[in-house]
Amino acid sequence: MRYDLVIFDNDGVLVDSEPISNRLLAGYLTELGHPTSYEDSLRDYMGAAMHRVHDLVLERTGRRLPGDFDDVFHGRVFAAFARELEPVPGAVEVLEKLATDGVAYCVASSGSHERIRVGHRKTGLDRWFDDGRIFSSQDVGRGKPAPDLFLYAAERMGVAPARCVVVEDSPLGVQAAVAAGMDVYGFTGMTPAAGLAGATRLFGDMGELADLLVP
Fold first, then answer.
1. Taking a C-beta distance cutoff of 8 angstroms, is the pair 145, 137 a contact?
2. Long-range contacts of range 102-105, CB-CB < 8 Å, 24 or more positions apart?
3. Tens of pLDDT along 172-182?
4. Pick from 121, 116, 190, 118: nearest CA to 153
C-alpha cells in the first residue's frame, strides 16, 4: 500500500445514506417554511455537519431553526435507516481487503457518533469499526470543509497527514482533505466528477478502491 492510513467518509462512501438523509432534510426544511428541493439539499448540505444547516438557514432567512430540529431530524433519519439503509456496494469487500492486508483504516464523518453507529449496526459494518476507529465532527470544533476532523483522526491513529488517504464523495469532504495535506480519492457514486475538483484521483465503483490503493 502506498499509504499508512485510509480514512473513510461514512455517508455515501460506506453506507448508502445520502439519498435517504437528503430527501428527509429537504422535506423537513420545506415543512418548516424553508423551501428546499432534494437537489438543493445535496448541493448545500451533502457531507456537512448539522451546524451548516443551521448557519445557512439563518444567513439566508434571518430565522433560526427550532431548538429541537436536530433531534426531530435524526429521529426521522434513524427510522428510515431501519427500513432502508444498505452498505455501499463494494464497501465490505474493501474493508475485508484492508483488514487482511493489515492496513490501518478508520472513519471520519460529519455525522454524529450516534448516527455513525446506528448506520453501521443496520448494515453490519460495525464488525469492522470499534470505537478506536470512529471519529465524528462532534470530536472537533469545526466540521468539513475545515481540515480539523481529518487531522484529528490521523493524530489519534498515529499517522502523519502526508501518509494518509481520504475516501470522500462530497465537495466539502474533498476540500477538507486537501486542506489537511492528505491525498483524497473522490468517489463519484453520487457526485459528478466536476464536483470533486481537487481530488487526487476519481473512481466510480467502490469495488475498485482496494486495487487503486495498491502501487
1. no
2. 103/1, 103/3, 103/4, 103/5, 103/6, 103/213, 104/4, 104/5, 104/6, 104/157, 104/159, 105/5, 105/6, 105/7, 105/8, 105/133
3. 999 999 999 99
4. 116
Does residue 109 contact residue 119 with C-beta atoms inside 8 Å? no
* Cβ(88)–Cβ(16) below 8 Å: yes
d(CA 144, CA 149): 7
| 82-105 core/surface letters (b: 16 or more CB in 10 A; e: else) | eeebebbebbbebbeebeeeebbb
The DSSP code for 195 is G
H-helix or E-strand spanning residue 137? none
Helix (H, G, I), strand (E, B), or coil: what is residue 183?
strand
Condensed to tens digits (0 to 9), the pLDDT of residues 104-141 reads 999 999 999 999 999 999 999 999 999 999 999 999 98
Q: What is the largest CA-CA distance in the chain?
A: 52
pTM: 0.90
Dihedrals φ, ψ of 8, to 5°? -95, 135
